[in-house]
Write a structure and sequence with these properties.
The complex is a heterodimer of chains A (322) and B (241). Chain A has 322 residues and is of the alpha+beta class. Chain A has eight helices and 18 strands. Chain B is globular, with a radius of gyration of 18 Å. Classes of the chains: A alpha+beta (322), B mainly alpha (241). Chain B: This is ABC transporter permease.
């Protein structure tokens, strides 16, 4: 646990970062800052302990980190090469970070895509065991993400473990193969991920169908993310697409609202409105603003409000109160 | 605390480049030289003109330049979020400070030397040992003052606002000294006052005799600024939030 100024920032975190692992943690900027300081030994936990082989071999990058804009890419990296005291041939390495065409360009003229790769290159030169990066893809274009992932693969192929944090699960799914969501009450919750694979010739497993297990699948980039029903706050239908709402994020599902209602009603979900399927466990209040309109207020900071059809009020009451 | 010459050298080169390309810092030495050149053309030669010009030029360079060179680069690093990157890249605060201080003090010394010929003062009239000692010590005091301001500032704008009263008070010492005797007496206890008096005496009497009061004032300012700097640095590091 880490408290700062009477406020609990991090709590209930139990995490082992194994060498070569690709871990992503969904958390806020403030939580990331504290986590990085704790791991790098710049901050001491209020309770609990952190075991690290050598904090000098851990580097971190936060979203505010800046570059010396007046220097060229080459001069900037040469400067850090002198700091680290290595004599690696930067000209050979620059290709892995896709920086050949801007090698002699001043950093102030570069795009966010290129600046992010420079940051990664700088940290790579130190040959750390672990790199902590906060939200590296936040302002990157699709092409920029592709090049960044290529550079990140190169970094990881050199035995460097990279742990990413971000407020957006989509970003972490692209960067990592193990994604946790941080919640102060329960600590780190693991999100189930599975790489998309071609299963057309894999009929032998088709007959295997375990009972009483259901997870909502959402396709994001080249991955499919599975959400447990208990993670979902509610599902909203927008223009015919069912959007799974988790925390402050929406994930589109290929299933229709009717399909989801049928599969999720065993897990405590209720169709409170034509466009909404709510997780009954998340309801905190029921308010009637007028005689014929009812509103459900959900738990959490955002206190989401969902409409409740008048005709379904009694049914909902029975479900909750029985 | 281990100090690495390699890292100090890398920071020295980086800071040399950043000082020479930052016009808000270079304005001080350029202003010192420009002021002397312009005033030399405008002012009639009364026999004391050279001493007046050199005194003012040196104060511009040592006070304005020193404080700005100490505070601006540090607050700029914080404002642009490059200091954290450096500090998490195995560079420690003392290596950063030494690497940043060296180009600044070298520039101050070089400009102080250049100011002598452009003030039309014969090189033989200068007691070079004491001249370099007083002006360089003055530069160091200003740099320390600048670093303290830099530690407590988050941006260049904030650093500029905090620096301004010190710069005005210390750079225009000769103006305050000319205003009235009481003020002149008070200003004689400032390091800028000592530098002004030293240059004036050296050029009017032909040779400077060490004055105990002046030396005590200079050393006291240096020690006080060093203590304040060590306190600020040890309490807040370079990054005061």
């Amino acid at each position: 646990m880490k408290q700062d100024g009477g406020q609990v920032i991090l709590k209930n975190i139990d995490l082992e970062v194994a060498s070569g692992s690709k871990i992503g943690i969904k958390m806020t900027h403030k939580e990331s800052l504290v986590l990085f300081k704790l791991i790098t030994g710049k901050m001491v936990p209020t309770s609990g302990h952190i075991v690290a082989d050598n904090t000098n071999t851990i580097l971190s990058e936060i979203i505010e980190d800046g570059l010396y804009d007046s220097l060229t890419v080459k001069a900037y990296l040469k400067f850090f090469q002198t700091i680290v005291g290595k004599t690696d041939d930067l000209d050979k390495l620059k290709t892995h970070f896709s920086l050949e065409d801007v090698w002699k360009t001043k950093i102030k003229h570069l795009t966010a895509n290129q600046r992010e790769r420079i940051n990664l290159f700088r940290m790579f030169m130190f040959s750390p065991k672990l790199i902590l990066i906060e939200s590296p893809l936040r302002n990157l274009t699709n092409d920029g993400i592709e090049l960044y992932l290529k550079a990140l693969d190169y970094v990881r192929s050199n035995g460097i473990t990279v742990l990413c944090t971000s407020y957006y699960t989509e970003e972490l799914i692209i960067l990592s193969d193990t994604v946790y969501r941080y919640n102060q009450n329960v600590g780190l919750e693991k999100t189930d991920l599975k790489q998309n694979v071609d299963v057309s010739d894999d009929d032998s497993e088709a007959s295997f169908m375990p009972k009483r297990v259901f997870k909502v699948a959402c396709n994001i980039a080249d991955k499919t993310v599975f959400f447990s029903p208990d993670e979902i706050d509610f599902i909203e239908s927008v223009n015919g697409v069912s959007n799974i709402r988790i925390g402050n994020e929406y994930f589109p599902s290929a299933l229709t609202m009717n399909d989801l209602e049928e599969k999720l009603n065993h897990f405590g979900f209720y169709r409170c409105h034509r466009s909404y399927l709510v997780n009954l466990q998340r309801i905190s209040e029921l308010i009637s603003y007028s005689r014929n309109s009812y509103t459900l207020i959900l738990k959490g900071k955002s206190k989401e409000k969902l409409p409740l059809s008048r005709t379904r009020l009694d049914e909902l009451r029975k479900l909750i109160e029985n | 605390m281990n100090l690495s010459i390699r890292k100090i050298n890398a920071i020295f080169k980086l800071k040399t480049q950043s000082i020479f390309t930052n016009m808000s810092i270079m304005v001080a030495p350029l202003m010192a030289i420009g002021y002397v050149l312009i005033m030399k053309l405008v002012m009639p030669d009364t026999g004391f003109t050279g001493a007046y010009l050199l005194g003012f030029g040196v104060l511009f360079n040592v006070i304005l330049g020193g404080i700005m060179m100490g505070s601006y680069p540090l607050s700029e690093e914080k404002e642009k979020n490059t200091l954290r990157v450096l500090m998490t890249s195995s560079v420690n605060g003392m290596e950063f400070l030494i690497g940043s201080l060296l180009p600044s003090i070298i520039l101050i010394v070089v400009v102080n030397i250049i100011l002598v010929p452009i003030s039309s003062i014969s090189i033989s009239k200068i007691s070079w040992g004491p001249y370099l000692l007083f002006t360089t010590l003055g530069g160091l005091i200003s740099l320390l003052l600048g670093y303290v301001i830099g530690i407590y500032s988050k941006s260049q704008m904030q650093s500029s606002n905090i620096s301004m009263p010190f710069i005005v008070l210390l750079t225009f010492t000769p103006v305050f000294q000319a205003a009235n005797k009481s003020l002149a007496h008070i200003m004689s206890y400032t390091y800028s006052g000592v530098i002004t008096e030293f240059i004036s005496k050296m050029l009017t009497s032909g040779k400077y005799n060490f004055d105990v009061k002046n030396i005590v004032v200079m050393v006291s300012w240096f020690i006080i600024c060093l203590v304040v700097f060590v306190y600020a640095y040890s309490k807040h590091g370079l990054d005061y939030e």
